[in-house]
From TrEMBL:
This is Phage tail protein. InterPro entries: 6-blade_b-propeller_TolB-like, NHL_repeat, Tail_protein_I, Unchr_phage_tail-like. PROSITE patterns: NHL. NHL repeats lie at residues 142-175. Residues 130-150 are annotated as: Disordered. The keyword Repeat applies. Keywords: Repeat.
Length: 718
């Protein structure tokens, strides 16, 4: 098989020369359907179109929403502390909400009061703007409000008020002065005749006020002076929406509540065709209010009156197209052989199809991204969801490539690489010469053999690719999620069904190190922490590990020498080591510096038969010179902090012990009790060291000391 000549159609994550319709290139250079917000799976029965209302996630983290039916304004604080109606002025029909420039304040439009109110977090009134008046149409006196239903603000604090009874939008200063020039400029072009809703966004050239006009069934964009952006307001046709009820802008997308479809639709604001991007998955129901947050989340207020959060990511558009060309070469008799693509993820919720066209001229074949079939004749379609195929057209110097991406809103193809090969003979040179006639460059040749060999080559490429990527299955960081359970079983792990992919990946990555510590206290502790959710247990053997004892006798070589500062004297006290070290509770004693804990014999002292206590022998004759407490050497105690031992955690601990505990060791599980048990306490678990008690009176008895000179009941009180 000869060496193939090829050209990549994208390099370094860039798709130069490509045109996109409802397709986005992500940060990794992968082409996907336009990302959309996604709901939590809420379904609300369809009904009458809800009355406009308001919902807002303020910069302080508080969530506000209005209820026109009950005349209340509700708020949930950043910590979820206020789920009640706010106190304040009596509201009649609260609707639209907007964040004020001052932190913690919100603007509220109330058509029942014919006013727009500035409210604090507790609902108390700060300011009211607008003068109530009877409807007078677009020529009503400036500043008059007859039924304001929506409100927006800009970065300078200016307030934009939608007044449907007067079919106009007015602008007010932060202090409430009307800016009549705004509406005069907006009405010059006659674009707005029946304003239904407003929203705003930060566009490329600054503030943009987006106005939904019911008569035109379109959205128009205006700047802060009232002038239409682009001269024509950059109209966005909402023909896909049957009955628009609410709008909000989030980045380059406009979300529209559609009462006819009982759904939320997404439209692109970048001017591409078609403008319709798709339906937001995970939410089915009407929308009386929509609001976008700075983090990309969208809040929707449905018919039930409870706000629902739509996550910033998780959804995708339902259909998109991308195309490029001409891809040219210098050879006039160029034969385009194969096209290869790399699809990183193709789940059950997405699909794609590749189209190609060749020509001797430079005239591009027609493309209609809004049509059901964007690539008609002379485009040639490869099989659906096939990443590679044989082009097989007549020799021509120019090639065009088109791709249609589709999905159900919950997934998208992720196209990361695309290349074309030319003058490729596939496996043809490996066959007898009789199969190589006529020549590849002859126009009267039969392509059947080349197409058949191309199909075989595709199968071989798939097998070769799977073999080449086998090493990924053994790499904990690069293994695909579906390979992790198999890899965990190979490493002897027993993952639970509820383990997340991240937790399973960590367990696989640390399996080798964990196996080296299996059966040790450190390994057991690590496994227990992982099993019980981060709570650190205390593991003790039965010999009494953790008992505090005074150090034993010094060696004979130390007798008569200076203490070396062990008593805290900084070698200045002149005292000598007398063969017995004790703990001294002095003013400058520091644990770990001037005092220390002695090690314990793991199995206790070794006694002979002469050892007696109150005329009673401590051991039997047949156990002479055996360590005391040898029978407890294989007993291990596991203690958790007070209140941490639950039935679920105890079951998890026993499961770990059954799997990893040494066979000759018995275990006891306890919950540590708080208290001050000197000599048996676990520092940091059941005991906190504190300072000594002060004297009861000035010049009273000195505080007790543990160590030299201790007389329980006289010099010290425990």
């Amino acid at each position: 098989m000869g060496q193939a000549d090829f050209r990549h159609l994208n390099r370094d994550g860039r798709w130069l020369g490509w045109r996109f319709s409802n397709v986005t290139v992500d940060g990794d250079g992968r082409a996907t359907l336009t990302p959309l917000a996604a709901g939590p799976g809420v379904a609300v029965p369809a009904g009458e179109a809800p009355a406009p209302a308001g919902v807002l996630k303020s910069g302080s983290g508080a969530l506000w929403w209005s209820s026109p039916a009950t005349g209340t304004l509700c708020r949930i604080g950043p910590c979820g502390d206020d789920d009640t109606a706010c106190a304040g002025p009596e509201l009649v029909e609260p609707r639209g909400l907007a964040a004020a420039r001052e932190r913690g304040l919100v603007w509220l439009a109330d058509p029942g009061l014919s006013r727009v109110l500035l409210l604090r977090s507790d609902g108390s009134l700060v300011q009211a703007i607008g003068a109530p008046g009877a409807p007078g149409g677009p020529d009503a006196p400036p500043g008059t409000l007859s039924g304001p239903s929506d409100v927006e603000t800009d970065a300078r604090g200016a307030v934009y008020v939608l007044d449907p009874p007067n079919a106009r939008i007015q602008k007010f200063s932060p202090t409430g002065q009307v800016r009549s020039a705004f509406w005069r400029r907006m009405r010059v072009d006659g674009l707005v005749r029946d304003p239904r809703a407003i929203t705003s966004r930060a566009g490329q050239d600054g503030f943009e006020l987006l106005v939904l006009d019911g008569a035109a069934r379109a959205v128009f964009a205006f700047d802060e002076t009232g002038a239409p952006i682009g001269g024509d307001g950059r109209p966005l046709d909402l023909g896909a929406a049957g009955a628009s009820t609410a709008i909000c802008a989030a980045g380059r997308l406009l979300y529209v509540g559609d009462a006819a479809r009982n759904a939320i639709l997404a439209f692109r604001l970048d001017g591409g065709e078609p403008a319709f991007a798709g339906t937001v998955p995970g939410y089915a129901g009407p929308a009386s209010a929509l609001s976008a947050c700075a983090d990309g989340d969208v809040w929707v207020l449905g018919a039930g009156g409870t706000p629902v959060r739509l996550a910033a990511s998780g959804g995708f558009g339902t259909r998109g197209a991308m195309w490029t060309g001409p891809v040219s070469a210098r050879e006039p008799q160029l034969v385009w052989s194969r096209l290869r693509s790399k699809i990183d993820s193709l789940g059950e919720h997405s699909a794609f199809r590749i189209y190609v066209a060749t020509s001797r001229g430079t005239d591009a074949p027609p493309v209609d991204p809004a049509a059901p079939e964007p690539f008609g004749p002379p485009w040639h379609a490869l099989a659906p969801n096939v990443p590679a195929g044989y082009i097989g057209a007549e020799p021509a110097p120019n090639l065009w490539v088109g791709i249609v991406l589709s999905g159900d809103g919950r997934g998208s193809p992720q196209l990361s690489q695309l290349r074309v090969e030319y003058n490729q003979l596939s496996y043809l040179p490996l066959l007898p010469r009789i199969y190589r006639e006529p020549s590849l460059r002859e126009t009267n040749r039969d392509d059947f053999l080349l197409r058949f060999l191309s199909l075989v080559e595709s199968f071989m490429d798939d097998a070769s690719g799977a073999i080449a990527s086998l090493d990924r299955l053994f790499a904990e960081e690069g293994a695909p999620p579906e390979a992790l359970p198999w890899l965990a079983e190979l490493l002897g792990l027993a993952p639970a069904e509820d383990w997340s992919v991240a937790k399973l990946r960590r367990a696989v990555a640390g399996a080798s190190a964990a196996d080296a510590l299996r059966g040790t206290a450190a390994g057991l502790r690590s496994s227990l922490i992982e099993a019980i959710g981060g709570v650190a247990p205390v593991i003790e053997d039965g010999a009494g590990a953790g008992i505090w004892i005074a150090p034993g006798a010094a060696s004979p070589d130390d007798a008569g020498r200076c203490c070396g500062g062990s008593c805290g004297c900084d070698r200045a006290c002149g005292c000598t080591v007398d063969g017995e070290r004790t703990w001294i509770d002095s003013d400058d004693a520091r644990l770990g510096f001037t005092t220390y804990l002695a090690a314990v014999e793991p199995y206790g002292a070794v006694l002979d038969v002469s050892a007696t206590l109150d005329h009673t022998h401590l051991i039997d004759e047949d156990r002479v010179f055996e360590p005391l407490f040898a029978e407890t050497a294989s007993r291990v105690s596991i203690r958790l902090p007070p209140g941490a031992l639950t039935e679920e955690r105890e079951a998890a601990i026993r499961a770990v012990l059954a799997r990893e505990g040494p066979a000759h060791v018995s275990f006891e599980i306890h919950s540590a009790a708080t208290g001050g048990r000197l000599g048996l306490a676990m520092l940091g678990v059941e005991t906190v060291l504190g300072g000594p008690p002060p004297p009861a009176a000035l010049g009273g008895a000195p505080r007790g000391r543990v160590g030299q000179g201790l007389a329980l009941g006289r010099a010290a009180t425990l």
